[in-house]
Amino acid sequence: MLIDEVDDTVQRAHQAHLVARHVHPQTRAEWLGAVAAALEDHRDELVELAQLETHLPEARLNGELNRTVFQLRLFARELVHGETFDATIDHLDESWGMGPRPDIRRTNVPLGVIGVFGASNFPFAFSVMGGDSASGLAAGCAVVHKIHEAHLQLGSRTGEIVKEALAAAGAPSGLFATLTTVSAGTALVEHPLVRAVSFTGSARVGRILMDKAAKRAEPIPFYGELGSINPVFVTRNAGQVRGLDILAEYVRSFTLGMGQFCTKPGLLFVPRLGSEETQALVTAVSKAAPARMLTPQLAAGFLDGRATMADRDGVFELVPGGSGEAPAPALFATTVDDVVHDPRIIREEMFGPASIVVQYEDETELIKAAALLEGQLTATIHGEDDDDVEDLVDMLESRVGRVLWNSWPTGVTVTFAQQHGGPYPATTAASATSVGTAAVRRFMRPVSYQSFPDKRLPPALQETNVWGITRRIDGQWMPAQMEAK
Fold first, then answer.
1. pTM (predicted TM-score)
2. Which of 30, 64, 78, 225 is catalytic?
3. Is 262 assigned a catalytic role?
4. 176-179: strand order across its sheet
5. What domains can be seen in the chain, in order of their start residue?
6. From the candidates 262, 349, 363, 365, which is the catalytic residue?
7. Distance CA 415, CA 183 (A)
8. Are strands 376-382 and 231-234 parallel, antiparallel or unpaired?
9. DSSP-assigned letters across all residues of 453-481
10. What is the pLDDT of residues 85-123, one digit of tens each?
11. Under-50 pLDDT residues of the chain
């Protein structure tokens, strides 16, 4: 796509945003509902296209589409309830503790046009109408989505369905648009009317786009998810009580979807393994059925990364794995001492069906190893009730966005308390999440209005609460029905 075509797309999106930013939350919610219904109506067509381009099983794709539809409807309910606006009213108070307080009111407003880059590994959940696009529309932004080349046909058809649904629901033309090609994506990041960008993909490409966003004449937020290794720590007590079960679950988790989940456990810290545990791991990995990876490029990148890891001093192959576009899973082993000597062992992601078992002699080594970790999306502890893991939890809390206890990180539910983010390089914005209702706030910013006449205030802040949303008034959160009393 030529630069002038990108400009035309963004200009139309900007005009649509100027209209959409003022609509009633119920109207915006109806737009999201219309998109959800349209995706469901075209389920069979979309899943068939996705199977052709991604080779993923029908059940997995239907599950992703279910998630996408659910997410849109959940965001719609949040809009009507009003939590995303964070509407806050402080009335004039002559007796305020630090001196007279003026009437001041704050609410979140949409940023404008946002650029969204689809991911290769989730053709629905992180693609055309995935979490970032849904969050942007829920925030009141216009969305321009750059379709991932791994599923161009699916992306294009999904984009058509979304645009048709929005038009039928009365949304302004241009509120949602799609682009293809690398040059179009670059132009999108650099366009002066684009106010934020979200990206899920490789650290290499993400860093290029992040730097472009930062070097603009007016830098903009860049919400990038760049990769994660998601370490799992097993205490000695947990290993003694249910060690074989943990090892079996670990293999199922890291081989799920051919290891192409951003939350795949790439490291397992365990007490030194005996022959029984080692044989159980080797058997389980060897029995894991290989499948075709999402793209030849992903397969090639995985094999390169796996080869690099195999060549590192202190890293040993327990299961060598296969080659080609459907490589059999691989498993490596090392020790905490080797990791201390070469921290790259636990910092280099192998995006695919491979993982590393890191053995320790004493649990105090876990803190030492955790301190070497870079930013991660998740970290997991498998322990028993009487285990002393407070120091480990504190260390992990400083490095990850989600800490799990006696469970597995693969699978990220869409809900109110979800945090899918983490310190760099896992993401470029550790305080944000790309999954869950809080994701909407990435594409909004707060604005305060001081001493404004009521009729000139935005609807969210007017005294009569014309939108009927939950608000915080003089320090107290009050649902609309309580305000009316």
1. 0.94
2. 225
3. yes
4. 176-179, 142-146, 113-117, 194-200, 222-225
5. 3-226+431-478 (3.40.605.10), 231-405 (3.40.309.10)
6. 262
7. 35
8. parallel
9. -GGGS-GGGSTT-TT---EEETTEEE-HH
10. 999 999 999 999 999 999 999 999 999 999 999 999 999
11. 1, 482-485
